[in-house]
Design brief:
The chain is an alpha/beta fold. Helix content is about 45%, strand content about 20%.
Length: about 450
């Protein structure tokens, strides 16, 4: 296919060529991969300013997306991709292969750094989903930090640079500039731009932004960050969000209320800290979906109301493919028991075939966990119908998952159905997602509100 870049894609490519370390904070669907590959090709073959290129990506993206983009575009088909995936022996062989670009999954970054040590020879590194390095204590961040001084060019790609809060920015920006803009330590960054909120002893559970901190942070990093929104550049098809109320029958409602009360009663007179709130919310969301794990990891069935609602949507789709996002393993098992045509995305080469089958319209119902389809997957050719069987508190996963269909190349309006069980935690999460106010505060407030309601009753 002939590449006819949009103006913003030319701009993004030029910024990569002219900036040794750059963050492309481009929303989903803006073609970050092809813009980056175009720049890499020029650095390798026109400017001779790159020698050995490494791409770090989520596993499924590493397996499929980068190689597929090279095959797709005429001007990139000469580039050779080596996938550093699989067993250690296979990875070592892939590292020795003659190639232009080496692609590795982020879970193996620590292995790669240990394998090469001071012989690290990748002068150009691309981090696809830079926000996945937001945890400064993670092994992948610490490993990459060790070899960062040996990297001449670093390109960070993400649509959500700070998925939860601006605290998430420090580690990704450090990998870009080694601390020149936001400071050499996370402690210094927090002291400069945040104040401690709720805490227990010396443990701080919440950091609050200082006044005008957001503007100051963005100003400081503006020279190494390119930020663009899809709505400003693309004539995107409409996205239509629907809330599908799920109403429990009297028996199921009574059972749900009893389980919720039994779960929350022990916390009537005690403090609910962040970790406990997360566990309680998780249980409540499972129950809203129709089943819950007990203390022995057995599954306690509560209702099939969401399965019935999903069946109505599948029937109304009249043969058009439906993409379903589920939250828990028991959700998937119950979906597959009800819908024999339901398939999931497998791993490796079979997973790549699943993606191809979906895009060719050969999979009528695809059940996917949002964490496994959060980044880089192009599913827009296969359908335009999304169903959220279960929600979670991650705005990043929610936005990225919806963008698998609502992205550049989609020809139809994307309809996103949210199955919301009335009177449950579903409603709280949906409200937070709609207001983009998903945070630890919102989660704790929702749990405490339910405990207070139990107390009143």
């Amino acid at each position: 296919m002939k590449y006819k870049p949009h103006q913003y894609q030319d701009y993004a490519t030029d910024r990569i060529l002219n900036t040794n370390f750059i963050g492309l904070f481009l929303e989903m669907g803006l073609g970050k991969t092809v813009s980056t590959l175009t720049a890499i090709d020029r650095l390798l073959n026109d400017y001779f300013d790159a020698g050995r290129v490494l791409v770090i990506a989520p596993l499924r993206v590493a397996e499929d997306t980068w190689a597929r983009e090279v095959e797709k575009w005429d001007h990139l088909q000469h580039l050779r991709i080596s996938k550093v995936l699989g067993t250690a022996a296979i990875r070592r062989k892939a590292l020795k292969a003659e190639a232009d670009i080496y692609v590795i999954n982020r879970e193996n970054v620590e292995w790669l750094v240990g394998e090469l040590g001071t012989s690290w020879d990748f002068d150009t590194v691309v981090i696809d989903e830079l926000s996945s390095f937001k945890n400064h204590q993670s092994k992948r961040f610490r490993a990459l930090r060790r070899v960062r001084p040996m990297v001449k060019r670093l390109i960070g790609l993400t649509g959500t640079p700070a998925p939860n809060s601006l605290l998430d920015l420090w580690a990704p920006i450090y990998l870009l500039d080694q601390g020149d803009r936001l400071g050499k330590t996370i402690t210094g960054y927090r002291d400069r731009y945040f104040t401690a909120g709720s805490k227990s002893g010396h443990v701080v559970y919440e950091w609050k932004q200082k006044k005008e901190a957001e503007d100051r942070i963005y100003e400081v990093i503006s020279d190494i960050a390119v930020s663009m929104k899809a709505e400003d550049w693309l004539d995107m098809p409409d996205r239509i969000d629907r809330i599908v109320p799920v109403i429990l029958d009297e028996k199921s409602r009574d059972q749900y209320i009893k389980l919720e009360k039994d779960l929350l009663l022990p916390f009537l007179d005690g403090d609910v800290v962040a970790n406990t709130a997360a566990v309680l919310s998780n249980k409540l969301l499972q129950m809203a979906n129709g089943a819950v794990y007990d203390e022995d990891r057995g599954v306690k069935h509560i209702h099939d109301a969401k399965l019935d609602a999903l069946e109505d949507i599948v029937e109304a789709a009249n043969g058009h493919p439906v993409l379903v996002f589920y939250s828990y393993k028991h959700d998937l098992e119950r979906i597959q028991n009800r819908f024999k045509q339901a398939q999931t995305l497998r791993k490796g080469a079979t997973g790549n075939q699943d993606i191809a089958d979906w895009n060719e319209g050969n999979i009528p119902l695809l059940a996917v966990h949002p964490a496994s389809a959060g980044h880089g997957l192009n599913l827009q050719d296969g359908g335009n119908l999304i169903v959220w069987f279960g929600l979670n508190w991650s705005l990043e996963l929610y936005q990225q998952a919806n963008a698998r269909l609502h992205r550049q190349g989609q020809q139809r309006s994307v309809i996103v159905h949210h199955l919301i069980t009335e009177g449950t935690m579903d409603e709280d999460v949906m409200t937070a997602l709609e207001g983009k106010a998903v945070s630890q505060d919102a989660l704790m407030a929702a749990v405490k509100a339910r405990i207070d309601k139990i107390a009143e009753e």
